[in-house]
Amino acid sequence: MSPAAPPIVLASVSPQRRAILEQLRIPFEVVAPRYRERDEPGADPVELAREHARGKARSVADEAGGRPVLAVDTAVVLEGRVYGKPRDAAEAAEMLGALGGRTHEVVSGLCLRTPDWEVVEHDVTRVSFRPLAARDVETYVASGEWKGRAGAYAIQGLGASLVERIEGDYLNVVGLPVALLVRLLAERFPGVYGFG
User: Fold this and answer.
1) Closest listed residue to residue 63, CA positions, set 29, 37, 15
2) What is the Rg, in whole angstroms, of the alpha carbon atoms belonging to the chain?
3) Which residues, in sequence order, are bridge partners of residue 72?
């Protein structure tokens, strides 16, 4: 990595996204996005995730001072239905019950932008849950780990016990599509952040 690598402005308050950037040794600063997500019923989940990522990135662009801005939006999708963050324990249990024994997709839109250009792409990881008994769901919901999590689970925590198999980028499920980010950084900033 170049010693003068400018910190990326992360348009997110997600602790998972911060931890992943730290793991990759990418310098960054956090700026909370000022963007309100609007999910149109029946909208394509991939297009929604891409549009939300773009909106988050643009909402902090003025504060970036010319530095690159990174924004991500992640959704859990099962048979076309988007499972967002549950409002309460009952909704979390309902979501987990629906996901149990089935394969869903974790869709992330990613926007990387500078004052000169903007690129928006997406990644999809398939996650298969093992069949879940009522006790499995009750135990997980009681842990409280579902709070603030799309699809009501965190794969990097106790939620790993719900998963049977994944196909694709594991860290995408945690909250940041790393393979996609690294490719874009290597293409757009060769050598600056240690890639390409």
Assistant:
1) 29
2) 17
3) 110
- The CATH code of domain 8-188 reads 3.90.950.10
20 in Cβ contact with 175 (< 8 Å):
yes
Write the pLDDT tens digit of every residue in 5-23: 999 999 999 999 999 999 9
Distance CA 67, CA 92 (A): 38
Helix (H, G, I), strand (E, B) or coil at 8: strand
pLDDT in tens, 35-68: 988 877 788 999 999 999 999 999 999 999 999 9
> Does 27 score more than 80 pLDDT?
yes
Crossing angle between the packed helical segments 134-143 and 89-99, to the nearest 10 degrees: 140
The residue assigned the tokens 């308050």 is 13
Q: Where are the domains of the chain?
A: 8-188
Give the distance, in angstroms, between the CA of residue 102 and the centroid of all CA atoms in the same chain: 20
pTM to 2 decimal places: 0.93
Where would I find the H helices in the chain?
15-23, 45-59, 89-99, 134-143, 170-174, 178-188
Residue 73 designated active-site: yes
List the structure tokens of 62: 């003025």
Annotated catalytic residue: which of 39, 44, 62, 73?
73
What's the confidence (pLDDT) of residue 63? 94
Instruction: Kindly list the distances between the CA atom of residue 23 and the CA atoms of 29, 80, 121, 176, in Å, as whole numbers in the listed order.
Output: 15, 33, 22, 12
Contact 60, 87 (CB under 8 A): no
